[in-house]
Amino acid sequence: MKQLFHHSLSAHAIGLTTLLLVALTTIFGSCSDDDNATQLNFYSSVRLTASDFMASQPDRYSEFVDILQRANYFSLLETYGTYTVFAPTNDAVNDYLHQHGYASVNDIPAAECDTLARTHIVSKGAYFTSDISDGALPEMNMCDRYITISSDSDVNNNNALLLYVNKKARIIQKDDSVTNGVVQTINSVLTASNLFLPDLIEADSTTQIFAQALRLTGMADSLGKYIDESYSVGEDSVTDGVRVFYGGYWQYCHFPEHRYFKYTAFVEPDKVFHEAGINNLDDLKAYAKSVYDATYPEDAGLYDNDWTNRKNPLNRFISYHLINRLGNYSDWCSSGEIKTQCCITSVADPEDFYETMCPGTIMRFCSPSAGLFINRKGLQNKATIRGVKVLSPSESGVTDQSALNGVYHYIDRPLVYSTEVRDNVLNCRIRVDGTTMSPDFMNAGARGHFGEDYLTGFKNDFIQDWKLSPETFIGVHSNELHWHSYEGNAVCITGIYDVTMKLPPVPSGTYEIRLGYTVGVERGVVQVYLNNEPCGIPIDLREYGPSNNIGWVADTDDPDENNANDKAMHNRGYMKGMDSYRSVNGNPFRGNVENLRRILTTVYLDNKQTYYLRFRQVLDDPNCYLSFDYIELCPKSVYDSPSGEDTH
C-alpha cells in the first residue's frame, strides 16, 4: 500500500514534469550559475534521481552532497519515492562553514550534519513552485518542521517574483524535476530555531511589549512543553502503516512517530500597539482593563494586580492571543485546491472556529480574498466588522517566526475578546470541523494533509480533549477533492466504538447542536449523548435523505416551496447540507441526498461550563464506522430568526 501511495504522487509529479517541460524548454535554452541572478526556471532530465542530479554538478552541489553522504541521506535520495530537496549551493555551504568556524564539511559534528540534511528534505511530496503559495508547505521536512515559503519582487529586474525559503534562503534555480521528485536550488543553508515560542517572541526586537506581558502574566510558562516522552509507537506503524478496515475496505493507516505539544501566538508588533496609543506595558495593562472589565463586569477590579490569575484583564488579553496547537498561515481555514475548487465563496467565506487559551473563549477565522482574518463578519470584501488581519509570511518581513514548539504571526490591530466579538461576531452559526477538535490532529500534520485515501492514526490515550473506549479506532482522513465531506476530510471512527469529545466554548445562550455527516450503508447506528444525557433516539447513519423519516426533497425553482420543505425536514430533526461547499465538479452539499445535518438537541449552554458529546455505536459490528465530519452550534437568534436561517 505504501508503494501504491508513493506511485500516485510520482505520477502527479511526472504529469507536472511533462507539462512544464514543453513550456520551459521553449523559453530557456540554458541556465545561469550566478547565484546573484534572478531565480531561473530550469528543467533537467527526468532520467536522474535527486542524488544523480546533484552529483552530476559538483561545481554547484558537491559541498551539500558531502553533507548528505556524511549523514547517510544521499543514498535515500537515490531511491524510489517523492521528495522535495532544497539544495544549497557550494557558496551557500561555504558561507555556513565560515559563520560556524568550520574549515570543511568534515569538521561539522555528525549530529549537526544529520540535522542539516534532514532540514533540507521533504520526504512526502514533490513541491514545484507552481504548487507553492504564501505559507508553509503541507508536509513537514524530515526534522518534523515546516518549510515556509514567502515572496517579494525584484525592483531591479522588472519586478520579477523572488521566492524565499524560511524567510532567508532565496530559490535561485527552481523546479529541477527528477525521477523521484524535485530539486529547488537555494542560496543559503536552511537552519531552524531551537528556541521555544516565548523565547523567540522575546528575541524579536519588534514585539517587546507583547513579550513583556507574556512573561508578566505567566503565560510564557504555559507554552513550555514540546514532546510527550510517554508516547511510543512501532516503527512499522510509522513507515509501513497498520491495516484498518474502514469505509468498506482495508486501508493502511500511518501513525505519527512522535507526539508534540505545539502552540500558536498572534502578536501585535510594537508599531501596531503604538498606533493604538499603547506605548509601554503600563498602557497595555490599562487598555486590557478597559476591554475586559466591560466583557466580564462581574470580575471588574477584583484581580487587577494579580497578573497570573486567569481572570486578570492583562492575563485574559494575552491568553486570548494563544492557541494550543501549531497553525501555519494557511492552516486555519480551507486553503489550496480545497478552497479554490470546493468552497463556494460567492455565498460564504471559508471559515473555522478555534478555542483559545483564554478560558471560555473562541476565535472566528475566515479567509476572503483579502487574506486571513480573526473575528471578522461579512462576505468577501464587504465586511460589517473588519476584524484583525493576520499578516502572511510575505507581509511579515524577514524575521523567522517558527519556534521549536510553535509559531507566531503578526497581526495588524489589537486582538481582544470584546463585547462586540462576543455578542455580534460570534452571534452566528458556529460550524466546527472535526479535524480541528483536538490539538493533536493539527500538531501531527493530519489536518490539511493532502493525499487520496491517506489515514493518520492516533493512539487512544494520546488525543487531547477526546476519550475513547479500548475498542475504538481513530484516524484522520487526508484532504480529498472528491470526498463528500466538509473541507474534504473527516475523523474516521470505527470498531465497537464509544468516543467522547469536548465541545469548544461558545457565548452563553440557547443553541441547536447539530451533527453534519455523510450517509453510507456501512456506517451503522449511533447513540449520541450530551454530558452523558441521551440526545433523542439513535441515529441510523445508513438512512438516506428521501426516506420518510428524514423527508429530504430536492429543491425547486420556487423559494417558498423550498422553505416549506426545509421546515418540514427541520421538524423531523434533520437539515440538508450546506450550499457553500461541494466536492470537486459536484453539486453543493445541499443538493446531495447523502449530505445531512441531524439536530441532536436544543439546549442552553453556559459559557462557564464544559460540554462533551459522546457517540456510542449501537450495532454489534466492528466494521461499522462513523465518518465524523463537523458539528454546528447554532444560536437561537440564528435558527429562530424571523428572516430564517440561511442555507450556507
Structure description:
With 648 residues, this protein is of the alpha+beta class. It is 23% helix and 25% strand. The chain is built from 16 helices and 35 strands. The strands form seven sheets. Strands 1, 2, 3, 4, 5, 6, 7 and 8 form an eight-stranded mixed beta sheet that branches. The longest helix has 26 residues, at 2-27. The protein is globular and about 75 Å long. Residues 1-45 have low confidence and may be disordered.
The major pleated sheet works out as: 8 strands, mixed
Number of strands: 35
Task: Report low-confidence residues grouped into runs of 5 or more.
Answer: 1-45
Q: What does the radius of gyration come to? A: 26 Å
Portion in helices: 10-25%
Beta percentage is 25-35%
Q: N-to-C terminal Cα separation, in Å?
A: 38 Å
Q: Overall mean pLDDT score?
A: 90
Net shape: globular
Category from helices, strands and their pairing: alpha+beta
Please, how many helices? 16
Provide a quick synopsis of the model.
This protein is an alpha+beta fold and 648 residues long. The protein has 16 helices and 35 strands.
